[in-house]
Design brief:
The chain is of the alpha/beta class. The protein folds into two domains: about 1-85 and about 170-263, P-loop containing nucleotide triphosphate hydrolases (Rossmann fold); about 90-165, no CATH class. The chain starts with 8 loop residues before the first strand and ends in a 5-residue tail after the last helix. The chain has nine helices and 14 strands. α5 (about 150-160) runs parallel beside α6 (about 180-195).
Length: about 260
């Protein structure tokens, strides 16, 4: 699959336990620049733990973590950010009482001496939104409390892209959105990848996944059942991989499944 290109992010055989609970078991994952990799799995499959391991919130217990082909050790979010990894969590972490510009620079404000450099922040925010072809915001000085769900998601994604990101992870970005807003956000997700970023999309919505993903990584009980090009699978096969760990000749070995998913 995708021969000749080096993954931007590559995990090899990563494991993570919390006490006696083995949450991730020998997971391999490859994420490529310029592509959307969908990460799918049932509740409890290990998606959140995997993402938090990539983001440095949890350290993996074992396995290899490679970024741009080099082994890295990530034990805190600042280290992941320094590599160019940004995560947009489901709660978005936006401040309703601040405007779009101040939300995009939250915690990383530009200043001249002791005064905020509003002109530089406004310029960079405008350039970033323009580069993503965002046209749904009336003003970058409007308060976030006045924005729709889709606009909020757009601001959170634009904030992630502002910091010279190379990999953006999106946690259920369309979960609370209507049809039109979902379409806007999915178009933005596609544009991120088309601009050369690696994108990991976590979603329960298989229609969204099939619309924008280049490849799909299916987790089943903490193991990677398969990572396959999106063009090679249909809705039903993805559901089988998520719920049973196997679909036809794709997925975990029958012996592993017969042993209750334990290799």
């Amino acid at each position: 699959m995708m021969i000749g290109t080096q993954p931007l992010l590559e995990l090899k055989g990563v494991n993570k336990s919390f006490g006696p609970v083995h949450v991730l078991r020998g997971v391999d994952l490859s994420v490529y620049a310029g592509q959307v990799t969908a990460l799918v799995g049932d509740n409890g499959a290990g998606k959140s733990t995997l993402i938090k391991g990539i983001a440095g919130i949890h350290s993996f217990d074992s396995g290899e973590y490679l970024f741009e082909g080099k082994p890295v050790s990530i034990s805190e979010p600042k280290q992941a950010n320094a590599l160019g990894i940004e995560v947009v969590y489901q709660d978005l972490a936006l401040c309703d009482n601040l405007d779009v510009v101040h939300n995009m620079f939250l915690g990383r404000e530009e200043s001249k001496g002791i005064v905020l450099d509003e002109i530089t922040m406004e310029r960079r925010a405008t350039e970033t939104l323009a580069s993503l072809s965002v046209r749904t915001l009336k003003s970058i000085r409007q308060q976030v409390s006045s924005l729709s769900g889709g606009q909020r998601q757009t601001v959170a994604i634009a904030r992630a892209v502002l910091w010279n990101s190379k990999l953006v992870i999106l946690d259920e970005p369309t979960a609370a959105l209507g049809v039109a807003q979902t379409e806007q956000v999915l178009n933005l997700v596609r544009r991120l990848a088309d601009s050369g970023l690696g994108v990991v999309l976590i979603s329960h919505n298989m229609n969204d996944v099939l619309q924008v993903a280049d490849n799909i990584a299916c987790l089943y009980l903490g193991q990677l059942a398969a990572q396959i090009p999106a063009s090679d699978v249909g809705h039903g096969q993805i559901v089988e991989l998520i719920t049973m760990g196997r679909s036809g000749d794709i997925g975990l070995n029958p012996e592993v499944l017969a042993a209750g998913g334990h290799a």
